Amino acid sequence: MNDSQNRRLDSFIRSRDNFAEVSDQFAPNGVAQQTAAQFAAKIEQIIAKAAAQTGGMGMARQHTITRGDARREVRLDLEAINRAARIMGLANEFQLPPEGNDRLLLNAARAFAANALPLKAQFIAHEMPEDFLEDLAADIAALE
Fold this sequence. Notes:
single chain, mainly alpha, 2 domains, 5 helices, 77% helix
């Protein structure tokens, strides 16, 4: 809900609460009581829909954060492979892509995986974890 809608809802809630304070002045089954009950039910519907909308926005934000985390993990994997490749004298085969483009990052990650596969034993000898290619594949899948 935007600010205008929130202010309007606050006004409705104040009106409902004000009527509740003076409701004893009206007949129990009269038109005023029935209207107030309908009004209160509509307010509850609005509150429920606002909560659902806020929850949906939170889920959307959560997926955005998750995508950012996946991007960061792929980047960290590539940086680790790049460092080991430079030590091994293979810096040209494992160049990092520029930041800010997921497609380039994924393409580079796939190329790193393909180029590192035949050299896996050498990477492991240079202190890379034994499952570094499996981790890279999982991080690529998470980003996709």
